[in-house]
Every structure is written in structure tokens, then in C-alpha cells.
Write a structure and sequence with these properties.
Blueprint: H1 2-19, H2 24-27, E1 102-106, E2 123-126, E3 132-133, E4 138-140, E5 145-155, E6 160-166, E7 169-176, E8 184-194, E9 199-204, E10 213-214, E11 222-230
Antiparallel strand pairs: 1-2, 1-11, 3-4, 4-9, 5-8, 5-10, 5-11, 6-7, 6-9
């Protein structure tokens, strides 16, 4: 019996060695225990090697505009530039002499007025303000001031004496002594101080002189006048004839 038991145990051991398992009593394990607490963190490891440089990334989106900065200090003056091109011509401005009065008249033929009546000049060279009246033959002052009057007359056939009048009083004379076979010229000029309403005209001075004042397509006889300096008064009652 004892021999069989020994043999049987040896066989069991042999079988166990053959299949690599422990005997039944040893192969049974106990219940796993409860996990232990976490251990203390270990020390930092050594720094690793520097890695290779990566590829350039894509540009990012545009950011918002920042607030404007404060104005900087004024910089030094730059060098003088080249002259620019001339500008366009501007519109015509108002004249610096707003008061205008002028006339220039001529005869259309031989005068027929007798002495004592103004010579009527009917040919108009300039009379824009209509201050010369071709019906009466007189210039009537509308703007008080200093005026210049002049006349240039062609004389044909007879001696002629012409006078310039202001308000019925003579201010200048011209006598032409005619020579047969020629056309003569008689002229004169005067500066007058006029008030509004004053009248100036030309006429034959004396009955003993016949009218020899002449004009045709080749010869003119003219009477002209224009304002030199206006005399505008602040008080209208001061604008009286003198």
C-alpha cells in the first residue's frame, strides 16, 4: 500500500512537471487585494534634445485696425519746389470805376443850324449811357464830376466861329479863317467841373459867320466828352449847380 502511494505521488509529480502546472493545492490563488495609494511623483527627467525646425505656417488673418496714434512733431521745411503751371484765366471782375459817362458823336453832312441854336450831331460813335441828346444837341450831366470835352470840325467854304457853351454861357471859342480851295480843321478842348443837370453843347457863335461845318464819307466833324473823376456827395442837397 505504501509502495503504491509513493509510486502514485511520484507519477503525479511527473505528470505535473510534464504539463507545467503545480499541484492542485498550489494552483489556487487568493482574492486580489485593494490597490495601494499613488506613489510620490518622481523627479523630472532630463531635458530632451532640441527638435528640428518645423515648416513655415500659413499667414494668419488680418487683425483689426489699431487706434490712430498721436500726431507727431512738425517736421523741418522741405526744399522749394519747381514753379507750377499757370492757372486758367479767371472770369472778368467788376470794374474799379463803376461810374461811367461818355459820348462821341459826329455830323452826317453839312450843318444847317443857325447861330443861337446847338449843333446837332446825329452820327453815333459811342453814347451807351445816352447822356448826349441828339434831339436837342446837348450833353446833360447825370454824374457830377470833372469832365473833358473836345471837338474836331471840318470847315468847307466859309469862315466859321464855333463856341462851346455850358448852361448858356460860353466857355471856349474857335475861329477858322477859310482859304479857298482847301478843307480846314477847327478843334478845341476844355475840362469842366459839372454838377448833375448841367448842359454842354456846341453852336455857331455869331451871325456874321455862316455855317461852314462839314462832313462826308471821307471827312468827319466830331463832338466828344467823358467823365474823368466822379464827385459823389453823401448829401444830395449839396449837388447843386454852381
Amino acid at each position: 500500500m505504501a509502495a503504491r502511494l509513493v509510486v502514485s505521488q511520484e507519477e503525479d509529480i511527473e505528470l505535473a512537471e510534464q504539463d507545467g502546472r503545480e499541484p492542485c493545492a498550489r494552483s489556487m490563488r487568493g482574492i486580489p487585494g485593494t490597490p495601494g495609494f499613488d506613489g510620490i511623483p518622481g523627479r523630472d527627467g532630463r531635458e530632451g534634445r532640441e527638435g528640428e525646425k518645423g515648416d513655415i505656417g500659413n499667414p494668419g488673418s488680418k487683425g483689426l485696425n489699431g487706434e490712430p496714434g498721436k500726431p507727431g512733431d512738425e517736421g523741418p521745411a522741405g526744399k522749394r519746389g519747381f514753379p507750377g503751371y499757370p492757372g486758367l484765366k479767371g472770369e472778368s471782375g467788376e470794374g474799379s470805376f463803376p461810374y461811367q459817362s461818355a459820348f462821341s458823336m459826329g455830323l452826317t453832312g453839312k450843318t444847317t443850324q443857325a447861330s443861337g441854336a446847338p449843333i446837332r450831331f446825329l452820327k453815333t460813335f459811342y453814347n451807351e449811357q445816352h447822356h448826349y441828346d441828339d434831339i436837342s444837341g446837348k450833353f446833360r450831366c447825370a454824374i457830377p464830376g470833372i469832365y473833358y470835352f473836345t471837338y474836331h470840325l471840318t470847315i468847307n467854304g466859309k469862315e466859321t466861329k464855333v463856341a462851346m457853351f455850358k448852361n448858356g454861357r460860353t466857355v471856349a471859342f474857335t475861329l477858322d479863317q477859310f482859304h479857298n480851295g482847301n478843307l480846314d480843321q477847327a478843334s478845341g478842348g476844355v475840362i469842366l467841373n459839372l454838377s448833375a443837370g448841367d448842359e454842354v453843347w456846341l453852336q455857331l457863335y455869331d451871325d456874321i459867320f455862316d455855317a461852314g461845318i462839314y462832313a462826308d464819307t471821307n471827312n468827319d466833324s466830331t463832338f466828344s466828352g467823358f467823365l474823368l473823376t466822379p464827385k459823389i456827395l453823401s448829401n444830395p442837397t449839396d449837388n447843386r449847380r454852381r
